[in-house]
Amino acid sequence: MAAETLAATAGIEVYRDGKCIIKRIVYWMDLKRNYKKLMQEAGDLRATKDAICTEISRFRLTEDMRVWIARTGMIEEEVIELETKYEKKQRWRLDCLANLSRDMTEKCNQVRNHREEGKLQKMTLAMELPEPVRKIHTLKLQENSSLHKVVRHVLGFLDDEKIRRIAICGMVGTAKTTIMENLNNHEKVAKMFDMIIWVSVTKEWSERKLQDAILQRLKLDVQGLTSIEEAALIISEELKEKKYLIVLDEVWDMVDLNKIMGINDNQKDSKVLLASRYDGVCYDMEVNEIVDVQPLSLNDAWKMFKEKVGHPISHPLIEPIARHVVEECHGLPLLIDRVARTFRKKDKNVSRWEDGLKRLQRWDSVKIEGMEEVLERLEICYEDLKDGEQKECFLYAALYPEESEIYVDYLIECWRAEGFINHANNFKQARDRGHTVLNELIKVSLLERSNKSKCVKMNKVFRKMALKILSQSANSKILVKPHEELEDFPRKEEWELANRISLMDNGVSTLPKSVDCHDLLTLLLQRNKYLTSIPELFFMSMCHLQVLDLHGTKISALPFSLSSLISLKALYLNSCSDLIEITASVEALKHLEVLDIRKTKINLLKFGSLIWLKCLRISVCNLETGYHIETQVSRFDTLEELSIDVDSSKEGWDEIVKMVVKEVVMLKKLTSLRFCFPEVDHLDLFVKHSPLWEKDSCLTFQFSVGCHDSAFAQILESIDNPTHNILKLVNGQGVDPVIIKVLMETNAFGLIGHKGVSSLSAFGIEKMNKMFNCLIDRCHEIKTIVDGHKTSEAVLKWLENLYIKDVPKLESIWEGPVCAGSLAQLASITLCKCLELKKIFSHGMIQQLLQLKHLRVEECYQIEEIIMESENAQLVPEALPKLKTLILLDLPRLTRIWANDSLEWPSLQGIEISMCDMLKILPFNQVNATNLQSIKGQQSWWGDLVWEDDATKQRLQSLCILD
C-alpha cells in the first residue's frame, strides 16, 4: 500500500515535471514571437504616450495622468532590459531562454493593459480639451446672395498664405456677425485650421476680459495667475504648434493680440479675422484686406424678407405693401429680421399690413416687435461719437430728405453758421475741421458717400433715428417735413417755438403773414417752386436765425423784414431766377458771412454794404456788364472764398473780365477761388499780378480757361480731397507757358476739345508732380497720353484716375520706354470712344500698375486684346495684383482679355461684359481669380463661350448675373 502511494506520488511529480518541461519548451520555441509581440505592444504604448503628451500641457495635467506617464516610463525601461537580454540569448541555456520568453509574455500583457488604461485617460483628456470648432447657431445664407458672396470672398483670403489678417467692415445691422458665424461654421474653414477661436469683443471689453474668454475657450486652468503677461505666455505655449484662426467679432478698438495672447504674425499659417463697424480700427490692427459689407440690394432684401415671412407674402394684395416694407428697412438684415417677425403675425390681413407699414414709416417702435433692440444698436453708433460737435453735425443732416444728395461745402457752411464747428478762426480752418467731422461720420456709416462726387446722404433708418433723438431732446424743437408734397405752410402749433424748420422740396405757395419764431436758428424752404413771394413781416421775429435757404424758389423780391435777421450768417438765394428786388436795408446783417446769389437777377451792388462777407458766390449776371463799375468785387476785402460762375453764353463777360481779374487780385485774404478765364491771357494776367500766386500760397483754385460749366465735376472733384486744385482747359490751342506753370500746382486736370498737341507730354509732364486726376475729352489730335521718348524720369507718379473719352486718334496711353515709378499710384483707367485705340498696355507699362483697381473700356472698336501678348510677352502671373473690377462694353473686335489663363487675378471681384460677341474665352481656370464674386453679361454671350473644362464653367456659372 505504501509502495503504491509512493509510486502514485512519484507519478504525479513526473507528470508535473513533464508538464513544466513542456511549458519551458513552448516558451523557448515562442521566444522570437513573444519578443516581436512585446516590441509591437511597446511601440503602441509609446505612440499612445506621445499622442497624450502632444495634447496636454502642464497646466491641465491631472494626477492620474501624471502617475500613468511615470509608470509608462518605468515599463519602457523594463522592456529595454528584456530587449537587452534577448540580444544576448546565444550564451544562455535552454531554461534561461524559456524564462526570458515567459517574462516577455507577462510584460506584453502588462504593456497592453497599461496602454488600454492610457487610452481611457486619453479619452478623458479629449473630453477636457477644447474642441477644434464650436459651431454657432446662425442664419443660413442663401446661395449667391450678397452675404454669401462676402463669405466666399473671405474664404479666398483665408486660403491665401500671403494674407494674415482680414477685416469685415460695415455699418451696424449689415449682418457682419452673421457672416462671421457662417465662416466659423464653414467646413472649408474647419479643414484649413487646427482650431478656430471665436471671441465677441463687447464695448466694455478689457484686456483681462478678452484674455479670460480665450483661456476659457482653450479650457486652460490658470487659477492663481495674476498678470496679463503670464496668461499670454500660457496661451502662446498652448497655440505654438497649432494652425489657428482667431475670430474677433464686433471690435470697438484696437486689440493688441501680442500682449493678450503672446502671438504675432510669425505664427505659421495662423490668421486673424475680425469684424468692426470702424475702418480706423481695421487699419490700427494692420489688416491685410478689408471686406466692406454694404446693406443688401433691394432684390436680396426682398428675398430675405420673403423667406422669413413665408406664404402670406405671395398674396396679390399684400405683396405690393410688403415691398414698401422692405424699402423701409434700407437693406439692413438686422432690421429686416425684426420687422419680418412682426409682419409674419399679420398673416393675410391686408388692413393690418397697411397699418404696419404706416407705423414703420413713422418709426412707431412701440408697435414693431424688436424695434427697440434695433434702435439701441443704431444709437450706439451715435452715442459712440467722440464729442458734441460730431453729434450736432449728424443730427443737423436729418433736416434733409432721406437719401437726398447734400452738397458737402453747403453742409459745412450750415454747420459753421450754427456754431457746431469748433476751433476755426477762418473759413479754411472751418472747412478742414468740417471735413474731419464728415469723414468720422462716414467712417461709422452715419452718413454715406453719394454717387455725386462732393455729396453725402443719410439713409432712411439713421435719419429716423436722428429725428427720434431730436424729438426727445429737451433743448430742441423741430419741424421737419421735407419732400412730403405739402401745399400749405404747417399749422401754428407745429412751428411755434421751433429751433429748426425744414420744409424744402414741397409745393408750398404761400407763407403766413407773420410767425412767432424767436428761437428759430435754421429755416430751409429751398426748391418750393410755387413760392412766389414772402410777406413783408415774415422774418420780423426771427432775430436769432442763422441759416436761411430760399434757393430754387420763384420769389421776385426780398421783404424789408429781412433786416430783422441780425444774427443771420448764411443766406442762400441761388437759382431764384425771378429774384430782382430787395427792399430791406442789408446793413443790419452784421453777422452775414455766406451769400449765394448765383443765377438770380439781383445786382451785387445791392449787397455792396456787406463788406464783412467771408464767402461770396455770384454769376456774371449779378455784375454790371454794360460798363464796369469799379470795386464791385474788391470792396468785399475780407472775402476768403469767391466763386464767379459763367453760363455757356458768357454774355458780357469778355468785356469786363480783365477789370474783374484786377479786382480779384486785390483780395488779400482769399483762400479759395472759383473763376472762369475766357482766354489764356486772362489767366496769365491773374498769375502775374496776384500776390496769392506765390510759392507756398494757401490758395485753393478751380479754374476754367475757355469755358465754364459743371461738366465732369464728378471726375475732377473729390469729397476725399476737398482742397484739390482743379484746372479745366476747354477749346484751347497749343501750349502756353502759363498753363504749364499752373499745371505744376494742379491736382485735377481736364483737357477738353483742345487742338494743336499730340500728347499730354507737350504740357511739361515731368513737372506735373501733384497731378491726381486727369480727364481728356474730345481732343481729336492726341495720339498718345505720354510720349516716353521725351522723358528720362518717372512721370505722373501720383496720378490716381485717368479718364479718356472721345479721343478718336488715340493709339496708346504710353508710347516708348517706361521709367520705373511712372503711374505707380494709378488706380482707375476709363477709356471710352477711342476709335483707333488698339494698345492699352504698351511694353513695360503694366509692370508699373501695381495699384490699378478699376479698368473700364467702352466703344473702342479696334481693341482686339485687353492685354496684348505682343507687348507683354514676359508677363508674370502676379501682374495687376490689385485689379478689382473689369468692365468691357461694346468692343466688337475683342477676342480675348489675355492670351491664356496664366494670370492669377488675385483681387478681381467683378466683371461686366456686354456687346463683345467675339470674346469666346475667359482667362480663368479652377484655381485663379479666387476672389471673383460676379460676372455680369448677356445670356447669349455666356452660352457661346468655349471652355477648357466643365469644372471651370460650373465654378463661374454660379457667379453669373445674366440678362
Which short descriptors sum up this protein?
32 strands; 20-stranded parallel beta sheet; single chain; 963 residues; five-stranded parallel beta sheet; globular
Description:
With 963 residues, the protein is α/β, with parallel strands linked by helices. The strands form 5 sheets. It has a 20-stranded parallel sheet. Helix 25 links the parallel strand 21 (726-730) and strand 22.
Question: What can be said about this structure in brief?
Answer:
The chain is an alpha/beta fold. The protein has 27 helices and 32 strands.
Structural class, by secondary structure, is alpha/beta
C-alpha Rg (nearest Å)? 39 Å
Instruction: Measure the end-to-end span.
Output: 117 Å
Bulk shape: globular
State the helicity in percent bands.
25-40%
- Describe the biggest sheet? 20 strands, parallel
- The overall pLDDT average reads 86
Low-confidence stretches: none
Total of DSSP H or I helical runs spanning 4+ residues = 27
Number of strands: 32
- The share of residues in extended strands comes to 5-15%
